[in-house]
UniProtKB/TrEMBL annotation:
Protein name: Subclass B3 metallo-beta-lactamase
Keyword terms: Signal
SMART domains: Lactamase_B
Underlying gene: bla
Pfam families: Lactamase_B
Source species, domain of life: Bacteria
Organism: Mucilaginibacter rubeus
Length: 288
């Protein structure tokens, strides 16, 4: 009897520890991360289903749907409601992707994977972080999970193709912000024309530490340099990003406004953003 009680106590304690092991950083300084935003059709079979700033994208296909990013853990119900409002069902999601393995893009991924049984595909550089919930993130202490771990069903490398139904997405390895930050390049079309779409993971420069103060990511400076150069040479018709603020979502789409893919064709905005990041990177490299 005592042995049984001990085992029950041990199991309960383990469950409590496991439940407490995910500690999502506070988002109080970023109310726009949880502020609802009406879902809308961006171009063809590409839709916006995220919050005001945490961009999440739904790509519908003839064989099911692809969801890119999930925002915070608390965004789960909002994303599901947004997908439903567009006339689609979360259960039809077959592939899950992310632009980077941080809690503000991975927060609800585990929950949505459990609901949908979808396959999680991720850049090789972020696969381990996704699988351990952020424990191995180069910029964290390594003693706490910032999001629920997600099993990675397929590891992606630069240039790999993600296929589903009539869609083909090319994953672009754009490391720096995380070891496996990535962008996606693909084609969609409506009844007027086709569009080359770039969902860009803008390489935000780590600002609170010197590159040399990150021993668990010795190639960070080299990776940033590679990514900035690679992103300058991309060709696309319309572009989006991991955060709404990065591609001026609020100025390009007002809730309730009509379908207008070309609102996201501001290439100058894209190259100006990259130029600013290049300047930040150069300044960072000057710091000894």
């Amino acid at each position: 009897m005592k042995r049984t009680l001990f085992l029950l106590f041990f199991l309960c304690s383990a469950l409590i520890i496991q439940a407490q092991s995910v500690v999502e950083p506070s988002a109080e300084k970023h109310p726009e991360w949880t502020q609802p935003f009406p879902p809308f059709q961006i171009a063809g079979n590409l839709y916006y289903v995220g919050t005001t700033d945490l961009a999440c994208y739904l790509i519908t296909t003839s064989a099911g749907n692809i969801l890119i990013n999930t925002g915070l853990a608390s965004s789960e119900t909002q994303i599901i409601a947004n997908i439903k409002a567009l006339g689609f069902n979360i259960s039809n999601t077959k592939i899950l992707l992310t632009t980077q393995a941080h809690f503000d893009h991975m927060g609800a991924m585990a929950a949505i994977k459990k609901i949908t049984k979808a396959k999680m595909m991720a850049d090789e550089g972020d696969a381990a972080v996704i699988a351990d919930g952020g424990l191995s993130d180069y910029d964290l202490k390594g003693d706490v999970r910032t999001f629920a771990p997600v099993k990675v069903d397929r590891i992606l490398h630069n240039g790999d193709i993600v296929k589903l139904g009539n869609m083909k997405l090319t994953m672009l390895h754009h490391p720096g912000h995380t070891k496996g930050s990535c962008s996606y390049l693909f084609d969609v079309k409506d009844n007027k024309r086709g569009y080359r779409v770039l969902i860009a993971n803008m390489p935000t420069i780590v600002t609170d530490k010197k590159f040399t103060d990150l021993p668990s990511y010795p190639n960070i400076a080299k990776d940033y340099a590679y990514t900035l150069k690679a992103m300058k040479g991309l060709k696309f018709d319309i572009w989006l990003a991991s955060h709404g603020i990065q591609f001026n979502l609020l100025s390009k789409h007002k809730p309730g406004s009509p379908y207008n893919p070309m609102a996201f064709a501001d290439k100058k905005n894209y190259y100006d953003e990259i130029a600013e990041l290049q300047t930040e990177y150069d300044k960072k490299m000057e710091v000894k």
